[in-house]
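Margin note from the TA: students keep mixing up input and output lines. Inputs are the sequences; the output is the structure of the whole complex. Example:
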Amino acid sequence: MKKELWKGNEAIAEAAIRAGCRHFFGYPITPQNEIPEYMSLHMPKVGGVFVQAESEVAAINMVYGAAGSGARVMTSSSSPGISLKQEGISYLAGAELPCLIVNIMRGGPGLGTIQPAQADYYQATRGGGNGDYRVIVLAPATIQEACDQVRDGFDLADKYRMPVMILADGMIGQMMEAVEWHDSKVDDLPEKAWATTGTKGQRKPNIINSLFIDPNESENHNLKLNRKYEEVKANEIRYEADIPEDCEVVFVAYGTPARLARAAVRVLKEEGINAGLFRPITLWPFPERELHEIAKRDSVKAVVAVEMSMGQMIDDVKIAVNGVKPVGFCGKAGGIVPTPREVADAAKDALKGAR
Amino acid sequence: MAVVYQKSTGLTDVEMHYCPGCTHGVIHKLVADALVELDLLDNTVGVAPVGCSVFAYNYFNCDMHEAAHGRAPAVATGIKRVLPDNTVFTYQGDGDLAAIGTAEVIHAAMRGESITTIFVNNAIYGMTGGQMAPTTLVGQKATTAPLGRDQAHYGQPLHMAEMIGLIGGAAYSTRVTVVDMPNMMKARNAIKKAFQMQREKKGFTFVEVLSTCPTNWGLTPVQSLSWVKDTMMQEFPLGVFKDIDKKE
């Protein structure tokens, strides 16, 4: 297959159309505008539907309606807009509806900045809405990976009947990279017997609902959701580990910082320090056991979380490492991207502390 | 034996939870009857709100969604854009539609979404226990307006049917009530007309129904019916505020 040069946001939109998505509901916000813009032009060409909603709140509720009626449906936004969608995401999780949500993260809090950041990690992985629920969170580090995760994300959403989020920083959305399109079959999407399509007089009514007023029923529903989440944890963890023999320090990073950490590994090698990179691809479920096993190795003296935030993923890193090695940190916030030098220096600091 | 009256087949056998004297049950029946008489029921998807009619998904004998508070018109938009040939309706109260969900209903109307909204206006928050609504009358007591709605503090009630009537995408907007038999027949016709216009893909259709809340008004069911006629209808006149069929 030939490689094509694509801007991240447009590539994500094209990947969704190729993955069989035919309904998109969104609202403008920088730095993700190219996704709805691309959809508005290209969805009608494939018989799909693009609607620009009056708000992110309305857009996610349109997703709720479309998902309940059986569509392969998607929305995208950026940090403040994703905050507004949290109510809807909680309802989608509660009503067990599949959909894909893309967050092209910018700096916060509040209006923050339009520059890239990763300050929505807590919101994405801890459930920004009310209640005990999870969404599968996929974190791409290249535009190719973002495209592949779109298809993967839709399929995971259908398989487990739950929302899936692609959590990418603004850098991934805005830069251009080579993309190779893989043919993906979209004529074998799963049947959705639970969807509201009209009974046609053939079956009892289907109800899309997250309300269980009786506490026993409500608990049972939560237990059912939890069993599903355990199944996801058991089956769907994705990560990349590039850990050399005699690795002294392990960077843990996702998205753009993972690329910078890779550069920092090279910087450190020139200085005679063996460093490695552990890149979680699913942020929820977090590859906890996998990271723990690496941290346990005798050669590893320290683990360093690298984030474009003041420290959010580091909580999951600490849970995974569970005290077996010290955990250092390199963080930048508000739209500032760390340099490989800064990342490398953080590793040296962590090693000093570990000795 | 001749059957002279029966429950609508558009309703399930689930026992309704509504208070004695509340007219939600009557309005449910009118909606269900309209869907059955127009032979639309099997192809209908309804959207229930948050409020007294939150359990409507258990009562209508068709596919249903339960929406977040105020979001029913957005949810219905999503459904209709997937199923353009199905009948899609929302059933909402005044807190749901005229307070937290004002943006959603206005913009569904603006887009001319081919859906029908049944708006039940009883001038109060029922389910949560009688708080002030955007439709509460000036001077009317509510648990969050214990001395009555003060115009200087809260302004005047919102007139949704008139507002929707001003929007280009709306095909039909009317206000009816169900407090006596002649009005019930008019309400029935209005609801049928709305669904008929939706079938013909004419645009957004909106039926506001003045309803009762004896429990939170502190009145008997009979007094409540009189209060709608004597007091509420002074503020909220019945009538048709838009009907594109009537345009020359």
